[in-house]
Design brief:
Blueprint lengths: L1 H33 L5 H36 L5 H24 L7 H25 L1
Amino acid sequence: MAEALSVIMRWLHITSMTTLIGGMLYGRLVAARASESLTPDAREALGERAATAQRPMVYGAIAGLLISGVYNILTHPGHTPSYHMLLGIKLLLALHVFAVGMLIVRPHNPRRNRMMTGVVISGLVIIMISAILRAIF
């Protein structure tokens, strides 16, 4: 039973992260560029509709990451100080992604594209740190 729960929590963590960062990558690198040819009013309307559609996915992914992340921390204690240092950096970056992700999907946000750029960078660094933690520790 414990193994099944661990697998489910790992799956939840990976799919939540993929949904959150993948959605931001798509929004910044594809949707934002594709909408550049639209008029400013049409671009803003599209951005608002996209943010409204993305909002439940962002909140759901954040909830999934929080639940599975807390589970992972509680069930895997006893790591080295280096592990905890990298984990601390990862968690601080995750808080940045969560906070800015919630701001990105708010209505009437003129800085949405710029904010997505920061989330994408932080998200990719989080993934890199996760790979290091998994491989080394």
